[in-house]
Write a structure and sequence with these properties.
With 325 residues, this protein is an alpha/beta fold. The chain has a single domain, classed as 3-Layer(aba) Sandwich (UDP-N-acetylmuramoyl-L-alanine:D-glutamate ligase). Helices cover 41% and strands 21% of the residues. The strands form two sheets. A nine-stranded mixed β-sheet has the order 6-5-1-9-10-11-12-13-14, with helices on both faces. Helix 3 crosses helix 10. It is globular, with a radius of gyration of 19 Å. It starts with 5 loop residues before the first strand and ends with a helix.
């Protein structure tokens, strides 16, 4: 890797999407309409049973980097894959979007992570996720040259489970701090916050200057739902926090200000999957381009609106063009 304005670190997951009859769900004892974590034998079995369908690179922070690149801002991704067929799919697909990816594939260990998405005739999505190789990111996968070249480092909370992955994130953030790069973290999920609250409070205070989370994640992190206490708690933790609030828009909280960002309305809310990831993409792209916080926040709302307007967590058109309209 050479350089990129925004560098993302997270799970490298291949989304495998297939149209299935309703009977597929019951016959394979799937938890209809929900996301279930599965082991490798179960993943291999379901992959074999599913009909041929769309395969594309995925994962929360990976989708964010695709969004950043769609704004015309250079982006790179750091995630772990295995040297297998789905690993090749991940590499080819994410590079196709314009995102740099050059992390060496694992020669052994778990297979490439996948999210098996079964879509029934009514449009319902049932997801079965095998994290596999993605959780095995190590410090040796972190390029000091790449991180030091960036303007912003963006790390995914979902990756914070195995100790080796934690050390990789800490190293990347330390490199960022030592080179004047903004280190950011997305909280990812309230359940992730519950599991890692104490570690994350320390990590954010010590290393993170830009925090992303929705309202529920921040309530879980800080232990309060009171608005004023939440704002005060965020200010004690970090320099800048972007708090998404669904239909109520978002807040960008700094030491001295609270910037209210309205939603960008859409004709029809089709699928909110990935809206938070793409909101982050807009904010990151804006800040990396030198935009003020308020402008960056509006870019985030615009990117989220594009995603909400269709099925899937990837923009179907250039965000640079879409948000210039």
């Amino acid at each position: 890797m050479s350089s990129a304005d925004v560098v993302g670190v997270g799970n490298a997951i291949v989304d495998v999407i297939g149209q299935v009859p309703e009977s597929f769900i019951s016959e394979n004892d799937l938890n209809r309409g929900s996301m279930t974590l599965i082991d490798e034998p179960r993943a291999e079995s379901l992959t074999t049973l599913m009909p041929d369908g769309l395969k594309e690179s995925g994962g929360s922070a990976a989708n964010t980097m695709v969004g950043v690149a769609s704004f015309g801002v250079s982006a790179a991704y750091v995630g772990k894959i295995r040297n297998d067929e789905l690993g090749d799919v991940f590499v080819d697909d994410i590079r196709e979007t314009g995102v740099q990816f050059d992390v060496a594939a694992a020669e052994s260990g778990p297979a490439t992570a996948r999210c098996l998405i079964q879509v029934t005739p009514d449009g319902e999505r049932t997801m079965n996720t095998f994290l596999g190789a993605s959780a095995r990111l190590t410090t040796s996968d972190i390029s000091e040259e790449l991180v030091a070249s960036a303007k912003i480092l963006y790390c995914e909370g979902y990756l914070w489970d195995l100790e080796e992955a934690k050390q990789a994130i800490r190293l990347a953030m330390d490199i960022a701090r030592d080179n004047g790069v903004t280190a950011s973290l997305t909280l990812s999920d309230p359940f992730a916050v519950e599991r890692h609250r104490d570690e994350w409070l320390s990590l954010i205070q010590d290393r993170v200057t830009l925090l992303f989370g929705n309202h529920d994640e921040l309530v879980s992190l800080l232990g309060t739902g009171d608005h004023d206490a939440l704002i005060s708690g965020v200010r004690d933790l970090t320099e800048t926090a972007c708090i998404t609030q669904g239909r109520a828009g978002s807040l960008i909280v700094t030491r001295d200000d609270v910037i209210e960002i309205p939603v960008v309305e859409v004709d029809k809310r089709v699928d909110t999957t990935g809206a938070g990831d793409l909101y982050a993409a807009g904010v990151l792209a804006g800040l990396a381009s030198g935009a003020p916080l308020g402008v960056a926040g509006r870019m985030g709302s615009c990117a989220a609106a594009e995603i909400i307007g269709h099925i899937g967590a990837r923009p179907l058109q250039s965000l640079k063009s879409f948000c210039a309209e």
